[in-house]
Amino acid sequence: MTDWALLRQVVLATDDIEGAGTLIREKFRLGKGFADPELATVGLADDTMALAGGSYLELVAPSSGAPMGAALSRWLTKTGGGGYALSVQHSDAVGARDRAVALGVRLAADQLVMGHPIVQFHPADAGLLLELDGIADPEKWFWDGLGVDPSPDALIHDVVSVEAGVADPAATTSLWTEILGFGPVERHTFDLGGREVRLVPKAENPRWTITLKRSTAGAELSEGALLGAEFRYV
User: Fold this and answer.
1) Cβ burial 198-224 (10 Å sphere, 16+ → b, else e)
2) Quick one: CATH architecture of 5-137+153-233?
3) ∠48-149-72 over CA atoms, to 5°?
4) What does 187-227 look like in DSSP terms, one character per residue?
5) Which distant-in-sequence residues (6+ apart) come within 8 Å of 20 by Cβ?
6) By C-alpha distance, which of 119, 12, 17, 123 is closest to 71?
7) Distance from CA of residue 152 to its chain's centroid?
8) In terms of C-beta density within 10 A (0-12 exposed, 13-18 middle, 19 or more buried), how is residue 234 classed?
9) Which long-range contacts (C-beta less than 8 Å, at least 24 apart) are formed by 39-47?
10) Domain spans of the chain?
11) pLDDT tens series, the chain, 234 aa
């Protein structure tokens, strides 16, 4: 069993990174984001915004015809955008990778980033694009010290849960359980450091439902669709 796993970033895909960034900042009063320079080399533009509770909202868009940019373009043509990927900080990303490969799961990425192992599992095998980030200290993250600080005026504090549609929740739950090194999981729901990921039938719930914790200033937030996902608040 794994020592711990922590949901860090919820990733939404769009074909308009600037427009989506403006929209989500205005909606939640979020501050300056960060563009990961590693992603430009694979054809992606991104905008990552910090929340005070330690999680992040990330936007990605195609920026070129490089492999990942081309794949995202095809996905956007098919879906129109929305929930795309989850980044999970994991105590043993290499071990999880090896278990996945042994199960026949294809890797979309397997590399070192800032000295840490990063693994992405192909969404056709893992149900969605699942990334594991092997940063050994759960109190640290990639963007620490890079000026991607939460806005003190933000209306949201943290990610509470993500409900993501997959073709077969039971089979995907079984696969994730083995890859992540978890014990038994109930109701297809993974507790990732106090943030939940719930797998539901994609045919019944094509949009992700993202639940966020309000800040003290966020009492008037209204629930509804945003950037191809459903947003709720607690």
Assistant:
1) bbbebeebebbbbbbbbbeebeebeee
2) Roll (3.10)
3) 5
4) TTEEEETTEEEEEEETTT--S-EEEEEE-TT-TT---EEET
5) 12, 14, 47, 59, 61, 227
6) 123
7) 23
8) exposed
9) 39/68, 41/66, 42/66, 42/67, 42/68, 42/69, 43/67, 43/68, 43/69, 43/70, 43/72, 44/68, 44/69, 44/72, 45/17, 46/17, 47/17, 47/20, 47/21
10) 5-137+153-233
11) 678 999 999 999 999 999 999 999 999 999 988 888 778 888 899 999 999 999 999 999 999 878 788 999 999 999 999 999 999 999 999 999 999 999 999 999 999 988 999 999 999 999 999 999 999 999 999 888 777 889 999 999 999 999 999 999 999 999 999 999 999 999 999 999 999 999 999 999 899 999 999 999 999 999 999 999 999 999
Residue in the structure block whose two tokens are 């539901």: 200
Parallel/antiparallel/unpaired status of strands 195-201 and 156-166: parallel
